[in-house]
Amino acid sequence: MQTTQEKNKAVVRRFNEEFIIKGNLDAFEEIVAPGFINHTGVSGYNDRIGTRNFITQLLHPALPDIQLEIFDMIAEDDKVVTHKAFTGTLQAAFMGQAPTGRKATLRIIDIIQLKNEQYIAHWSIRELITT
């Protein structure tokens, strides 16, 4: 039997792989709770719909060939901390960077709070590295 922490880690991995990488909106709808709050989201992108739009309208156009590498994932109580990187070719303006047509890496450490295997809150530290 899986622990709550193992289940939560599986949900976070699914969100990253299915929604962020593949753009699966059904996965987003299943995983992100209606009252979700992104405490460190870009202004105007702090709630559930804003978070979805940030990924689909800003991140995906900026890195259309996006790939994911998860370096570490730690779960405790109702939270999962992930150290990860998204890489791709910077094709549109993103996080203050003009498109370069070259490789960019978005390194992130985030904390996800879950309840009933759904995202209810998020905090992160992000760094965009362009070459």
Low-confidence stretches: none
Share of β-strand residues = 35-45%
The amount of helix comes to 25-40%
User: Which CATH-level-2 architecture?
Assistant: Roll
What is the β-strand count?
A: 5
Count of the domains: 1
- Secondary-structure-based class equals alpha+beta
CATH topology descriptor: Nuclear Transport Factor 2, Chain: A
Description:
By secondary structure, the protein is α+β, with helices and mostly antiparallel strands. A hairpin with a 2-residue loop joins strand 2 and strand 3 (79-89). The mean pLDDT is 96. It has helices spanning 4-21, 25-31, 48-62; strands spanning 32-38, 67-76, 79-89, 103-115, 118-130. A five-stranded mixed β-sheet has the order 1-5-4-3-2. It has a single domain, classed as Nuclear Transport Factor 2, Chain: A. The radius of gyration is 14 Å and the shape is globular. The chain is 31% helix and 41% strand. The longest helix has 18 residues, at 4-21. This is SnoaL-like polyketide cyclase. InterPro entries: Cyclase_SnoaL-like (IPR009959), NTF2-like_dom_sf (IPR032710). It comes from Chitinophaga polysaccharea.
Give a quick precis of the structure.
The protein is an alpha+beta fold. The protein contains three helices and five strands; from the N terminus they run H-H-E-H-E-E-E-E. The protein has a five-stranded mixed sheet with strand order 1-5-4-3-2.
